[in-house]
Amino acid sequence: MDTVIRAAIAFVVLWLLTKATGRATLGELSSFDLLLFITMGDLIQQGITGEDRTLTGGFVAVATFAVLAVAFNFVVSKWSRASKLLEGPPIILVSEGEACTTAMLHQRVSVAEILSAGRQSGFERMSDIRLAVLEQDGKISFFPYDKRE
Is the pTM of this model over 0.70? Predict the structure, then answer.
């Protein structure tokens, strides 16, 4: 039971750390971020299993993580309030062709990242973007100006 409690605490701490890194970094990891996330598991393993180096102890820790991940996904998919609380709302990064610098700073998204993602979606300039929204999964959605205007 001790392993389950430690794994649950580690899961919550790691979840909070990934949320603190910002959504954009979860959408596309840099090499450093990828190494950090890979090694996090190894670094925290000792704290979860303690002196238990058995295969069963490892499976209990992994199963606890899997059950908690499924539970989080279930809660997020069933209740929109929980989704907003656990994942946060979508964030507007560009409005009417102007960068929302406060939101960008808070989410650690640069103008260069928005322009790069915008080019992949067919936008040449920031002024071509009516609305850019950072979604809960870290991807950026772009909306053009209405052509009838």
Answer: no
Query: Exposed, middle or buried by CB within 10 Å (0-12, 13-18, 19+), for 36?
Result: middle
CA distance 50 to 41: 14
User: Which segments of 7-47 are extended strands (E)?
Assistant: none
| Paired residues of 99 in beta bridges | 94
CA atoms of 139 and 115, how far apart (whole Å): 13
On the 0-12 / 13-18 / 19+ scale of CB atoms within 10 A, 18 is middle
Predicted local confidence at residue 144, as pLDDT? 93
Q: In the chain, which stretches have pLDDT less than 70? A: 21-36, 148-149
